[in-house]
Structure formats: structure tokens, C-alpha cells
């Protein structure tokens, strides 16, 4: 029985199956894999990666393991997580723009950061930031209304909106002065320096690759910009006895519960950069893909609009009543997980399933593959939000990883889900979205799961 039949989807409304990038031919050689990786890591995986539990291959004199078994994923990311560290290519790409933030820190440094940050991301703290989210979304809606009679680049609009929200939630001021610079710097890095160079894969981390010199020059400018924004925020100050206004207040006041240590200025800067970059890009990506899917599936878009209308209370959205909207977000992140790949290097020998892992071997856990795996999902390529509605069978905890899992699960997951759900609800409540471009949009994997081009949309006020 198909998932459509299981959830009683009428025959006239067979689930949408969005176009997917072609799968790599089996037996692709190392050189072909490297060349394809420059454009999209997703394009390097063949049919076996969507069907088998554990695949071992050789790549640059080391074994790589693609892991699709939930119990093996639990072993790597939970039970023995300290044995698996970030890979050198991942550090090369992320450190220049995230510094030593919690996303890439290791060992004691990471544990200190994680303990210190945790209180800033509990649900109660996230609730205090919701007004900043709503203000950013409302501003974006007003801008879209002004352009509703012409084609709209929704990807660009979502990036601008989530950058504004990131600035407001972090620093509690509008990003009018700094938004353009912030966006230009992020785009510059993403377009020119985030794609791995072949030497990034070959050289040990202690040997700089040609790209590393350019990344270092960028990092100097980026961190100086972040320091400037923080200095401006500090000048505003914090009213004595007043509750925290934003993430900056929360991070500035944060103390390690074990040692009592606060963040240094450099650590605070790196954490602020991490929160803005990680929060902005992942949410913008999720919202773009959600609006794309709903444009391909107008009936589901109408269901979201109806729920939004019913969820309004005294002019404000009630988050708890947006269950179908949240299911759309969850299903979008299944089909298009913002983080398409989790790569780890073994610090010591280990055993995964029936495979022997040597020190230095690379473990690849791909939410893209995992979420479309033929053994783990029914109709894996179909867009069916009903999978995530209350009462539906829940997927295995280690088969659905939009935010990772285990001790290093994304600390901002709750923040991102609240922002994405509220933003999608308000956008669909305000407009009907339709695709203008007829060319299929293909996902590519370059740091995040991006579209291969930005299609144009028409938007009609409801």
C-alpha cells in the first residue's frame, strides 16, 4: 500500500513528486567524483546510496563509509560521538566565517560553549524572540505587496527576510545600515570560497591550500564587520533589571553552569557569527523549498491557507494551531534538508555494523540520502506532509535528521522551527504563490541544499 493510500489521499490528488537531480552512474571514478563535487556533492551519489545500509569505498587512500542504518548512525553520533570529529575540508570551509563557534569547536571548548549557550535556546527564551521574527516577516510581506504585480525572486526575498530576522533577534535593531554589507559578504563567501577545492580534500589541515589564503583575507574583513555591529549594539546598552531583548543580551549574560565563566569578546563574536549564518541560511533555504513545493501543489497550499485563517486569534497567529503548516515544514526538510551531509573523521579504530573503521577513515551520514532511502520511507520522493501530522506513524529517530542528532544536535532547532512555521503561515496567509518558470528546479549540495537556479514566482494577495 502506498503512503497516499495509507493517509487516504484521493486519487485525484496523487502526491506531488518534485523533480530530483539525476543520480550518478555506478562506478564513477575518483577524478569524475572530484569534478562533480565542485558543482554538487548530491550528484556524486548513485542508486546504491539510496538502497543500501552501509557502503564502503576508497577515496584518496582512505575508506569512506556512507551510513544509512539508524542503529549505526546512533553509534556514530550518540554512543561513540567523541571518536568522530569534523573533517579537514569541513573545517577549512566553515572556520573562516564561523570562527571557533559552537558549530565547529571540539572537545572541552565545545562542551563549555554548549553548556553556556543552552539557556539561550530553551523554548521560553525563544518565545521572547518571536516579536522580532514577526516584525521581520511583516516587513517582508509589505515589500512583497509592493511588487505583487511583477515576477518575484522568492529565494532572494527569503534570504533578505531571514537576514533581517537574524539581525533583529541577535541585536534587536533593524538591519537597514548593515543589511546590505552583511548580505554581500555572505554571498561573496558562498559563491567564491565555500566550494571545496581539490587540494582542500588532499592536504592535511596544517597545510594551507590556495583557497585558504583567500579565506583568511575574507575572514579578517568578516570578523571586523561583526565586531563593528557588536560595538554598535553595546552602545545601545541594556536597561538595568530589564529582561533580555535579544540573543546578544542572552549570550552576553550567559555563564557556564559548571565554571561560571562568561564568553570572551572573541568568543561572543564567533557565537554571534555562527547564529546569524547558521540561522539565516538554513531557514531561508527551508522557506524557499516550502514555497516551491506549495507552488507545485496548489491544493496543499490552499490547505495551509485555510489552517492559517482558522489559527488567527485576536489578529495574531496561534502557533499551536498550525499543525499542518508545521507538517509542511517537516516534510520540506525531509525532501530538502538544509544540511545535506554530516561528515566525520574517525579519531581511533572502531566497528560500524560489520565494517572495520580505521583511524582517519571518513563517515558520511547524509540527511539527503537518509530521507529518501527506499528501505526507510514509503514513496520516499513524494511530498506528503501528512507523514508528520499528529497520529501518523513517526519515523525512526535516526532516520530523520534535519537538525542532526545526539550531543551535537543543532542548538537552534527550536528557534528555526518556530521561525519557519510562523513565516510560512504568514506568507501563505497573505499571498497565493505560483511558479512562472517552467524549467525544473534541481537541488545541488554546496554547504547547504540549494536550488540550481532561482525561479521566478508570481504572488497574488489573498
Give a structural overview:
By secondary structure, this protein is α+β, with helices and mostly antiparallel strands. The protein has a single domain (3-461), classed as Cytochrome P450 (Cytochrome p450, Orthogonal Bundle). It has 16 helices and 14 strands. The chain has helices at 3-6, 30-39, 70-79, 88-98, 107-117, 123-146, 154-171, 179-192, 198-202, 210-236, 247-253, 265-296, 298-310, 323-335, 367-371, 413-430, and strands at 54-59, 62-67, 84-86, 152-153, 312-313, 316-317, 342-346, 350-352, 355-357, 362-365, 431-435, 443-446, 448-451, 456-461. The strands form five sheets. The chain has a five-stranded mixed sheet with strand order 1-2-10-7-3. Strands 4-14-11 form a three-stranded antiparallel sheet. Strands 5-6 form a two-stranded antiparallel sheet. The chain is globular and about 60 Å long. The two termini are 37 Å apart.
Amino acid at each position: 500500500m502506498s503512503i497516499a493510500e495509507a493517509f487516504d489521499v484521493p486519487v485525484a490528488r496523487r502526491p506531488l513528486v518534485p523533480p530530483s537531480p539525476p543520480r550518478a552512474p555506478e562506478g564513477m571514478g575518483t577524478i569524475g567524483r572530484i569534478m562533480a563535487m565542485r558543482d554538487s556533492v548530491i550528484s556524486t551519489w548513485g542508486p546504491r546510496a539510496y538502497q543500501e545500509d552501509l557502503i564502503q569505498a576508497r577515496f584518496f587512500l582512505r575508506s569512506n563509509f556512507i551510513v544509512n542504518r539508524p542503529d549505526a548512525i546512533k553509534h556514530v553520533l550518540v554512543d561513540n560521538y567523541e571518536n568522530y570529529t569534523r573533517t579537514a575540508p569541513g573545517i577549512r570551509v566553515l572556520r573562516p566565517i564561523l570562527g571557533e563557534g559552537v558549530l565547529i569547536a571540539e572537545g572541552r571548548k565545545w562542551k563549555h560553549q554548549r553548556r553556556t549557550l543552552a539557556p539561550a535556546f530553551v523554548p521560553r527564551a525563544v518565545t521572547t524572540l518571536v516579536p522580532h521574527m514577526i516584525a521581520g516577516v511583516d516587513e517582508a510581506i509589505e515589500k512583497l505587496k509592493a511588487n505583487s504585480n511583477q515576477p518575484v525572486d522568492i529565494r532572494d526575498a527569503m534570504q533578505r527576510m531571514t537576514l533581517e530576522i537574524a539581525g533583529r533577534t541577535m541585536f534587536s535593531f533593524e538591519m537597514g545600515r548593515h543589511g546590505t554589507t552583511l548580505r554581500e559578504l555572505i554571498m561573496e563567501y558562498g559563491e567564491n570560497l565555500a566550494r571545496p577545492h581539490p587540494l582542500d580534500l588532499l592536504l592535511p589541515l596544517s597545510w594551507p591550500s590556495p583557497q585558504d589564503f583567500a579565506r583568511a583575507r575574507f575572514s579578517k574583513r568578516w570578523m571586523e564587520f561583526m565586531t563593528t555591529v557588536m560595538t554598535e549594539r553595546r552602545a545601545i546598552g541594556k536597561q538595568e533589571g530589564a529582561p533580555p531583548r535579544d540573543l546578544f543580551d542572552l549570550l552576553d549574560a550567559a555563564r557556564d553552569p559548571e565554571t561560571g565563566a562568561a564568553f570572551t569578546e572573541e568568543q561572543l563574536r564567533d557565537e554571534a557569527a555562527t547564529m546569524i549564518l547558521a540561522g539565516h541560511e538554513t531557514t531561508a533555504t527551508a522557506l524557499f523549498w516550502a514555497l516551491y513545493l506549495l507552488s507545485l501543489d496548489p491544493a496543499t497550499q490552499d490547505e495551509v491557507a485555510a489552517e492559517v485563517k482558522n489559527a488567527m486569534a485576536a489578529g495574531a497567529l496561534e502557533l499551536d494551531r498550525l499543525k499542518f503548516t508545521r507538517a509542511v515544514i517537516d516534510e520540506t526538510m525531509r525532501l530538502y534538508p538544509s544540511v545535506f551531509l554530516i561528515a566525520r573523521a574517525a579519531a581511533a579504530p572502531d566497528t560500524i555494523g560489520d565494517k572495520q573503521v580505521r583511524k582517519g577513515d571518513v563517515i558520511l551520514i547524509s540527511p539527503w540520502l537518509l530521507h529518501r532511502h527506499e528501505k526507510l520511507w514509503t514513496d520516499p520522493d513524494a511530498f506528503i506532509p501528512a507523514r508528520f501530522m499528529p497520529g501518523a506513524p513517526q519515523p525512526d529517530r535516526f532516520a530523520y535528521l534535519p537538525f542532526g542528532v545526539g550531543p551535537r544536535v543543532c542548538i537552534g532547532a527550536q528557534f528555526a522551527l518556530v521561525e519557519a512555521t510562523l513565516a510560512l503561515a504568514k506568507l501563505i496567509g497573505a499571498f497565493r504563490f505560483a511558479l512562472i518558470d517552467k524549467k525544473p528546479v534541481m537541488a545541488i549540495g554546496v554547504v547547504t541544499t540549494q536550488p540550481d537556479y532561482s525561479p521566478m514566482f508570481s504572488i497574488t494577495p489573498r
